[in-house]
Write a structure and sequence with these properties.
single chain; 2 helices; 2 domains; 3 strands; Phosphorylase Kinase, domain 1
């Protein structure tokens, strides 16, 4: 049996704590009761699109840039609207 020192035990505890927090956050996002869509934090989206990486950009139009990424094991397109976009505003 391998003996582990305090550093390895501390690292394992930290990794376990981070994993629990990530699972809790994912569960909260999945259990969202919004009609027909899920809500994601801006941090989740920024991470998924690798902080606006050009390599994930799949299009750009008058209303904003579109990125392809994966959120909760699903490939999605994310549109980042331009501030001056007025589509749907009355």
């Amino acid at each position: 049996m391998l003996k582990r020192g305090p550093k390895e035990i501390g690292d394992a505890k930290l990794r376990a704590k981070i994993e629990v927090e990530e699972r809790k956050k994912a569960h909260e996002e999945l259990s969202s009761t919004h009609q027909g869509y899920r809500r994601y934090s801006i941090e989740s989206i920024q991470t998924a699109i690798d902080f606006f990486s050009d390599s994930l950009k799949i299009g750009e139009g008058g209303y904003g840039v579109v990125y392809m990424c994966t959120l909760q094991h699903t490939t999605v397109a994310v549109k980042i609207l331009k501030n001056e976009a007025t589509q749907g505003i009355q």
